[in-house]
Amino acid sequence: MIQRRNRWYQVITAACCIVLAGHGLGAEAAANPGAFPLKDGDTWVMVGDSITEQHLHSNYIEAFCYARFPKLNFHIRNAGLSGETIHRLLATGRFNTQAAPWKPTLVSVELGMNDAWTNHNISTSAYITNMTKLTECIRGIGARPMFFSPSAVNDFTCSTNRSAHNQRLEAYSTALRAFAAEQKAPFADQYHPLVDVWASKKLSGSSVHIAPGGQLTMAAAILEGLNAPGLVSKATLDISGKTGELIQCRITDVAIEKNGGISFDRIDECLPMPIPDEARGGLAVYPQIADLSQWILAVTGLKDGEYQIDIDGIPVARVTADILAKGWNMGTLEEGPVADQCRYILQLIEIKECWVSQWVRATKTPGKKMPVILAELNLKVLEADAMIREAAKPKSHHFSISPIQ
């Protein structure tokens, strides 16, 4: 069986190397701990368990990357598997058959939930020992490792009254932070920022597979831990039509309206974080999500009162002059062309994930045609990547700010 597995691994790897050649830049020096770890040319493989496999929070993270870094050329692949532990990932050779063939330059590891179950009874020291072995595998294929702590169990216990499972997950998370520092590798802690938030808000979903709103909080906590840039752009202008501070955006064709309002065209260098409609409940649970999408509009000199904001002729919000003067964050808008563009990015990522899932299933199909099938599916995945990248390109929009009589 071992010889057969090795033979098929060689076939799979050869096939994938052909179609993936040129899409990875190989290993680089350890990332600046203060910088977001994604680099131009990266292929990022997300290794994890069923929480990763269901590609909710991982899709949200991927959507953030496409929206915030439209000039980067990168690829993100999901390699989660239900029930996965670090030991099983290594013992089955699954890392070599379903992660390594993508030729990753960056591999994130989000494991521990299943390691901590009583039936596995993996001590914290054994957890780190296994993580060390996995890290050696990651570096052995020329990739940079990155570590995410396991999430808390959504059993409504908090940091001062933890269940046995959460006690073990807390110990894993603390040890993993120290391990990542020793490895000089990026680390994101989602356990400590969220355990009390989840306990107090009593989010829906199962104890492990939390509902989309909770998954959005996970994505936000991970992005925060990775030092993701929160600023989308900022535009400041006066009611006289004079532009002030412009960061990562351009303002043109400013017009003063007779009704005391103002209109202009604005194009930004990137987009706010796409937020799925079904996950918007996470905004109330974890307000820091809005900090990841600081898409700021500041208009000074307006008369007191409330103003309607239209983007491309579509009403998106009503905002007071006071809020506009201080700087209004548009990053979590539900309506308008930018919100629709963000929804489209999420839809395309979901389509891409369907192709990735088919690729994973094909690796388990023996036969001489398997390399051909994998190559064809990989081309579909790359085509899907290109569609996402095209959809994430910023566009110019016409803004109109009119007083509400």
Written account of the structure:
Helix content is 42%, strand content 20%. The strands form 3 sheets. It has a 5-stranded parallel sheet. A 5-stranded antiparallel sheet has the order 8-9-14-11-12. α6 links the parallel β3 and β4 (144-148). The relative contact order is 0.13. The chain has 2 domains: 2-229 and 345-391, Rossmann fold (3-Layer(aba) Sandwich), CATH 3.40.50; 231-337 and 395-403, no CATH class. The chain is globular and about 70 Å long. It has 405 residues and is an alpha/beta fold. Residues 1-31 have low confidence and may be disordered. It is built from 14 helices and 14 strands. It has helices at 2-20, 50-53, 57-68, 86-91, 94-99, 124-140, 164-183, 191-201, 212-225, 281-285, 288-291, 321-326, 337-362, 370-391, and strands at residues 43-48, 75-80, 106-110, 144-148, 187-188, 231-238, 243-247, 249-256, 262-268, 294-300, 306-311, 314-320, 328-329, 397-403.
What attributes does this structure have?
405 residues; alpha/beta; Rossmann fold; 2 domains; five-stranded parallel β-sheet; five-stranded antiparallel β-sheet; 14 strands
What's the short story on this structure?
This protein is an alpha/beta fold and 405 residues long. It has helices at residues 2-20, 50-53, 57-68, 86-91, 94-99, 124-140, 164-183, 191-201, 212-225, 281-285, 288-291, 321-326, 337-362, 370-391; strands at residues 43-48, 75-80, 106-110, 144-148, 187-188, 231-238, 243-247, 249-256, 262-268, 294-300, 306-311, 314-320, 328-329, 397-403.
